[in-house]
Amino acid sequence: MYIYIGIAFLLILLYSLVIKPFIQLLLIKIKFGNQAKMIFFPIFGDIVEIEGSYKKYNDHYASIKKYFKENKDLKFLLLNIFNIPFIFIGDPEMIKQIHTNHDSFRKIDFLNNNSRLMGQGLLFQYGQQWKNQRKLLGRPFDFDKLKARIPMMNQVVKLKLANNNYQNPLDLTRSIAGEVVIQTFFGKEAENAQLNGREAQSEIVELFNDITEAIYGSFYGFLKWMIIGEKQWKILPNKKERNINRRIEELNIFARNVIDNRITKIQKEGFKKNQEDFDFLDIHLQELLDEKNTTGITKEEIISQFITLFFAGTDTTSSVAAMCLFYLAQYPEIHQELLKEIQTVIGDGDVLDIHLNKLQELNSFILEVLRVRNPASGPLVRVANQDMLIKDLHIKKGWILMPANFVQQQNDKYFQNYEDFDHKRFLKTQVVKNDNGYVNIPFSAGPRNCIGQHMAMMEIKVILCHIIRNFKVTPVPEKMKNLKWKAKFLYFHEPLDCIQLIRN
Ligand code: HEM
């Protein structure tokens, strides 16, 4: 009797974990033929593909890029995450549909920590709350407000470059980007903040990397992620998970203290006289402390937004700036061209807002780096809220989608001589072939595009101008020999010190 129950149980398990998703994907493959590629690995799914690519090519994304390069008709990959179909989409028309109908999806809590980290911030919010937050946040991201931050950006970059105490270029750019975020959004209360014994900006990035590692780099962590969700951190936490719990607690206390200190200051001294001088915290606290509070914003939301901005504003920008340095080291002739442009447009002084539009070569260089290797290699994966049709592909509620843009960015269907690193392509009027506006979108597109994109471009330009004028950027040959491309939270090279900055 028990044997039959056991066998029935195993069969049900086999059906729901393996056979059902396999058949769902297979039917799509049969319908779409050459336009779809099926890569099914029971239970472990896409992780097997990505780790396999790393083993074979020293690059987590190489195999996926290869599929799209080799098959020009390929529109999407059919993978699985555990027992759920996972569609990795490369077709720009389908990507457009996903980004324009953003309300039909939810972003996956890939760090399994949304109630303690970014869950209530702009990146993960939906519906009216997302609209309210985006409107409130629009003010500190207004272009004129950002322009006023350029002198501060120059100061931070010069100070950090003078300090000269960094283990690698990413360490340096992270320290700069974190400080700029602090001064732009949170003010004096958060300056020089230390968490877990290091600069707050480094700790937040490392914390997120360690969470990623604890989930995706461990069988135990991954199974817990799939089966019990966010309870992973409470139920039978191992040493790594306990350490992460402690650090998340510390980060929350820090954010809460910064906010409470500002509230105390406002209660004593009132708000700043000129609304033009309001930073992120002032704008949000004005809403919170107002009796009407029409957006219904809560302190918990502000804490979550704080963590979102700290993370989104630091890790992405610093990784792109450091990736630019990586390519400068590979192409010294481009370094010379950019130097010439910077000397002609700016001379020896600070970067001013009037210079930004004139730095055409530099702008094109950053765009080319974002085309070739954008560390924020795509938006977050999404879950369908309902059954739907994306072009002619039937998607069921609960299926997972990745509107990936990095596969189009390196494909001759869209870019001429796509394998060449040629920043001058962005100086031409028509850069992208067959463009529907959703091919080259390093900052995503549609209503949920990156709210910080102008700030990021400004900041990267300021960082690069100072470095290009004052440093040689060179590869370290013995480290370059073992170069690997790893997707942790962001996609970046290892070792981090394979290039170096040498002061002129
Ligand atoms: C080069 C640097 C940057 C890159 C490549 C980048 C990329 C992106 C991408 C691809 C998205 C879409 C995510 C998705 O929909 O799943 C996004 C959204 C977002 N980014 Fe950025 N980002 C950068 C810098 C920044 C900065 C400096 C900030 C803020 C200080 C920021 C804040 C945000 C926020 C809050 C969102 C969510 C917007 C929403 O859902 O309405 N980003 N970013």
Number of helices: 19
Task: Round the mean pLDDT to the nearest integer and report it.
Answer: 93
The CATH topology is given as Cytochrome p450
Derived structural class: alpha+beta
- Flag low-confidence runs: none
Beta-sheet strand percentage?
Answer: 5-15%
Q: What best-fitting shape do the alpha-carbon axes yield?
A: globular
Oligomer: single chain
Distance between the termini: 81 Å
CATH superfamily membership:
Cytochrome P450
Number of domains: 1
Q: Supply the CATH class.
A: Mainly Alpha
**Strand numbers in spatial order across the main sheet:** 1-2-3-10-7-4
Helix content: 40-55%
Strand segment tally: 14
Describe the structure.
With 504 residues, the chain is of the alpha+beta class. It has a single domain (2-503), classed as Cytochrome p450. The protein has 19 helices and 14 strands. The strands form five sheets. The chain has a six-stranded mixed sheet with strand order 1-2-3-10-7-4, covered by helices on one side. The chain has a two-stranded antiparallel ribbon with strand order 5-6. A two-stranded antiparallel ribbon has the order 8-9. Helix 11 (239-269) crosses helix 13. The longest helix is centred in the middle third of the chain and has 32 residues, at 299-330. The radius of gyration is 24 Å and the shape is globular. The mean pLDDT is 93. The structure holds protoporphyrin IX containing FE (HEM). Protoporphyrin IX containing FE (HEM) is lined by residues 107, 122-123, 134, 181, 308-309, 312-313, 316-317, 320, 374, 376, 379-380, 442-444, 448, 450-452, 455-456. This is Cytochrome P450. The chain crosses the membrane at residues 6-28.
